[in-house]
What we know:
Low-confidence stretches: 1-11, 13-19, 83-105
Distance between the termini: 27 Å
Largest sheet: 10 strands, mixed
Number of strands: 18
CATH topology: Jelly Rolls
Strand content: 35-45%
CATH architecture: Sandwich
Number of domains: 1
Order of helices and strands: HHEEEEEHEEEEEEEEEEEEHE
Mean pLDDT: 88
Shape: globular
Radius of gyration: 19 Å
Helix content: under 10%
Amino acid sequence: MKRVQWIWVGLPLWLLVACSPTSKLVFEDHFDGEGLPDSTRWNYEEGYVRNGELQYYTVARPENCYQKDGCLHIVCRNDSARIEQGLFGKAWATPVDTTRCDSVAPVTSASITTRGLGEWKYGRVEVRAKLPDCRGSWPAIWMRPARDTYGKWPRSGEIDIMENVGYDLPKVHYAIHTEKYNHTKNNQKRFTVDCPTVATDFHVYGFEWRADKLTWYLDGVETYSVVKDEEGWEAWPFDQPFFLILNFAFGGGWGGSQGVNLEGLPQEYVIDYVKVYQ
């Protein structure tokens, strides 16, 4: 019996999910099309959204987000020359605040979400991805609440399935944010794991969400978990639907804390697939 248990622990997360009689694939995208991602699965954030980041998130702009050869490519670009030359045309419908980028940029990128299209309470998420390699890059896979049931951030929670910053490339970061535990109080629940090939190879970033436990996986191996050991939404707001976000930020409070390399752009954040099981 012990031997059987060890075999199961060693199996990849996708196989554990597939073998479970109670799990069901409720969302997937293999990005097999061409051009923009499927609008029935993904929508966009727009503008300068958070954290003092340098990038402006564009909407449905192929230069920043496109499918090709079975992968989604989220591209961070230094578009200052193109704007000076008037090359955006109708594709740039919103005025650009170049002062946010010290008159050098704007930097453009994309952030896609399943908000209003795919929202889940509990389940497993898998994303196979290859990360960019540039000082200033800040790609992420994360989840936010579909509704602010307990109030604005961080009261209703945040789940960071994967974060990476270019100045410390080999490290993959996991975290949650709640009213009681978050980075503004310097007490957030977080963990870091080394992965030297994040920018040269694809890796599977997995996350399992249960009513009383959150578990992170890297290539099918469990690397971190947080157990519900306190009652109340202040410590555990994870009892409501969340949606998924894939974004490529640049600069900002964390990604830019060691400077940025604008000359290193463009950079690509490449996603092979996304799967959600319940």
